[in-house]
Amino acid sequence: MKLYTYQGETPDEALRKARGVHGDDSMIISTKEIRKKSLTEKGLYEVVIAAEDKVEVAPPNSVKQKLEQIAQKQYDKKKHESKITLESDGDLSERARQISKLITSPSNPYNIQPQVPSKPQEQNSEDIKAIKKEVEQMSDRIKLIQSMFWEEKNQPSKEMKIPQEFAEIYNLAKNSGIDKERLDALMELSLELMPLSMRSNSETIKRYFREVLRKMFECRDEHLSGKNIIMFVGPTGVGKTTTLAKIAARYSLMLNKRHKVGVITLDSYKIAAMEQLMTYARMMKLPIERVDDPKDLQGAIDRLGYCDFILIDTAGHSQYDNQKLEMLKRYLSNEFLISVSLVLSASTKYEDLKDIYKSFSTVEIDSVIFSKLDESRSFGNIFSLACDIKKPISYFSIGQSVPNDLLVANNDFLVDCLLEGFKKPKKDMR
Length: 430
Hints:
Blueprint (H helix, E strand, L loop, with lengths): L1 E7 L2 H12 L4 E9 L8 E8 L11 H17 L9 H16 L15 H17 L2 H9 L19 H9 L4 H14 L8 H13 L13 E6 L6 H15 L6 E5 L5 H14 L3 E3 L6 H7 L5 E5 L8 H10 L7 E7 L4 H11 L6 E5 L8 H10 L3 E5 L8 E3 L2 H10 L10
Parallel strand pairs: 4-7, 4-8, 5-6, 5-7, 8-9, 9-10
Antiparallel strand pairs: 1-3, 2-3, 10-11
Helix pairs in contact: 3-5, 9-10, 13-14
């Protein structure tokens, strides 16, 4: 083994130079900054690698070199076009197929086999094997070349350049609906903290990025000990009553220990909602109390004092209805410790979610429940809100079925939804 030194404006550039000569099996010994970037000078980094003494440099007309040249020409041409819009994934795939077709075409001048005086068939066979092996090792590089066709205007800022190996995960996160400011910060954090050795493979980049996402919000375990009084609040139509029924069924019927559950409804505005909750209570044989005035809530709680859980349903109303928000605060003004869970729909826009949370935070919110995950196709809105408010997520409601379509919240499930879309769990995650 010998040591070789390569330099570049960035650590990535120096590493690409090294691996362009010595291949991906070379071992990184050290990386250091030679000169800091300034207004007058570019940055300079040095990478020291260890590689075998005899290095077989790829011939100038190799498939890999020509592929990179073709891709670079395409990219340079694209940068100088003033009226180009971002291509769809289908367009990217079609262009990659065109490049592949060009490379493998018999008429491609780069496919001309070298002429060797002796044993031409044997030599041609060796060349074909070498090319085949080279192509087999290029699957990850093809992804990078496909990503070269994304537009510079879609990079987070002029100051921060996204390396091509990050383009795939950037597009996934962008399409998930994460707000731009947060996505920029995530990219900057990943570029700063990710070890250089992990950047050469899109899968390791994706795993690292997932771990960063997991640590940006909190999911909370169930509180199953002691006496618990939980009030469910939120705007109209988010599924508070159905969510309450799922949780009531979970506590009273589905856990190893069957807890005693009582229900109180404050929703005297909608007869249908009251009848729905009464039906659920009768089916599960749960005691239920109706309260129409804040001063009567204490008596209802006292009557259900033998229960392990008391679940309180409230009337849904607009986040701009200050009068009803004040009424909620009056219901909470008593000697009991009442935990407040804000129920929000995953299909609500991020800006509206922020408005709803701000309005309902006039009562102290202890946790958040997200409903209707099965009705949404992007989850950057609820991820961004969870990062903003720093409140734990307690449950995900993933369908209309009572009691089955309820999950105890966990970070992995939300990150999966964020990057891959909603998939109803096949196994019991409750």
